[in-house]
């Protein structure tokens, strides 16, 4: 019987995280949890109290800032802890705002049928020029969330503008084809170990970039033989997401808000979309907004 590793990044709503952990608690799974170092008063014993069948590991934690290299660091810490522990059939990266929307029996059977495939989302055939700027230039202020600091946000834009004027281009001499997509994935043991083997290159290439967590894995796969193993070998954002995304490539149901350019917070309004979906995981759940949809999903997967 193959085992799976659940890699979870959490930074708030820890009562909900307890429910997520319980939802993936299964003798066929081990759970690796990264808690943002900025989170305070986290009761680890309380988080672990409903875990009876899986092994739960708290990995080395870092301060995570949105869009900064620290997001990659936390992912690599999770992957590295998992591959040191065992050889898993699959490694699933989830956020602390996700839930499985299928039972563990269904999920394990799905990956058994598709064994060896990589579940990674690619956004477009070629990275758009403005997206490629994320890695072309240096992005300072790595210890700040620029979404909430207008001064640093403006300063960073001016710094990028200056780099353009003086001709800085970090990737000018690179032969690598960069790619991007959703940072949430389900990957095989082979790819997980290959990614960790590339840690020095990842740090050199993506440190001081913006939103590099949406670039590094796709770029690694694009420039390797793992590209042949993609489950959904298409560039699917524009083809499939105009009326609401169904992310078949990485099996994540994410209802995208094109106005705010953020995932829609799931509520009972999305009940039928979630229940009728043939995907495996969904995000984003916000307990302060709607607890009923969370309970409905949990009842559904337990019943199945």
Record keyword descriptors for this entry.
single chain; 10 strands; 2 domains; Peptide O-xylosyltransferase; 37% helix; glycoprotein; Spore Coat Polysaccharide Biosynthesis Protein SpsA, Chain A; golgi apparatus; glycosyltransferase; alpha/beta
The number of helices is 12
**Lateral arrangement of strands in the main beta sheet:** 3-2-1-4-6
CATH C-level of the largest domain: Alpha Beta
User: What is the count of β-strands?
Assistant: 10
Number of domains: 2
The biggest beta sheet reads:
5 strands, mixed
User: What's the CATH topology label of the largest domain?
Assistant: Spore Coat Polysaccharide Biosynthesis Protein SpsA, Chain A
Mean pLDDT: 92
Q: Report the principal-axis shape.
A: globular
CATH architectural name of the largest domain:
Alpha-Beta Complex
CATH superfamily of the largest domain: Spore Coat Polysaccharide Biosynthesis Protein SpsA, Chain A
Helices and strands, in order, run as EHEHEHEEHHHEHHHHEEEHEH
Low-pLDDT runs of 5+ residues are 239-246
Helix content: 25-40%
Write down the Rg.
Answer: 19 Å
> In percent, how much strand structure appears in the residues?
5-15%
Between the first and last Cα atoms, what is the distance in angstroms? 20 Å
Helix and strand composition category: alpha/beta
Précis, in short:
With 304 residues, the chain is α/β, with parallel strands linked by helices.
Tell me what the structure shows.
This protein starts with a strand and ends with a helix. Helix 3 crosses helix 7 (189-197). The radius of gyration is 19 Å and the shape is globular. A five-stranded mixed beta sheet has the order 3-2-1-4-6, with helices on both faces. Strands 5-10-7 form a three-stranded mixed beta sheet, covered by helices on one side. Helix content is 37%, strand content 13%. Helix 2 links the parallel strand 2 and strand 3 (55-58). The chain has 304 residues and is an alpha/beta fold. The protein has two domains: 4-125 and 179-303, Spore Coat Polysaccharide Biosynthesis Protein SpsA, Chain A; 129-166, no CATH class. The chain has helices at 14-23, 44-48, 69-85, 104-113, 129-136, 150-166, 189-197, 199-206, 216-222, 237-240, 271-276, 292-303; strands at residues 4-10, 29-35, 55-58, 90-95, 98-100, 186-188, 252-254, 256-257, 262-263, 281-283. The protein is built from twelve helices and ten strands.
């Amino acid at each position: 019987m193959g085992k799976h590793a659940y890699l979870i990044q959490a930074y708030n709503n820890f009562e909900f995280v307890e429910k997520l952990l319980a939802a993936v608690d299964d003798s066929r799974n081990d759970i690796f949890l990264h808690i943002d170092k900025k989170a305070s008063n986290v009761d680890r014993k309380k988080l672990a109290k409903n875990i009876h069948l899986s092994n739960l590991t708290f990995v080395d934690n870092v301060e995570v800032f949105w869009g900064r290299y620290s997001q990659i660091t936390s992912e690599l810490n999770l992957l590295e802890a998992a591959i040191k522990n065992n050889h898993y059939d699959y490694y699933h990266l989830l956020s602390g705002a996700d839930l499985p929307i299928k039972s563990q029996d269904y999920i394990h059977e799905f990956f058994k049928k598709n064994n060896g495939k990589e579940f990674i989302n690619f956004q477009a055939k070629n990275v758009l020029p403005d997206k490629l700027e994320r890695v072309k230039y240096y992005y300072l202020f790595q210890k700040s969330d620029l979404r909430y600091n207008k001064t640093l946000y403006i300063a960073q834009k001016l710094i990028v503008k200056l780099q353009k004027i003086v001709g800085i281009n970090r990737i000018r001499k690179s032969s690598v084809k960069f790619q991007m997509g959703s940072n949430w994935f389900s990957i095989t043991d082979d790819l997980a170990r290959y990614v960790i083997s590339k840690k020095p290159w990842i740090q050199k290439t993506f440190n001081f970039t913006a939103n590099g967590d949406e670039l590094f894995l796709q770029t690694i796969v694009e420039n390797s033989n793992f590209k042949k193993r993609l489950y959904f070998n298409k560039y699917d954002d524009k083809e499939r997401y105009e009326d609401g995304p169904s992310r078949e490539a990485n099996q994540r149901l994410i209802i995208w808000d094109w106005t705010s350019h953020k995932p829609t917070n799931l509520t009972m309004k999305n009940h039928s979309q979630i229940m009728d979906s043939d995907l495996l995981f969904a995000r984003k759940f916000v307990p302060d907004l709607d607890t009923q949809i969370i309970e409905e999903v949990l009842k559904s997967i337990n019943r199945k």
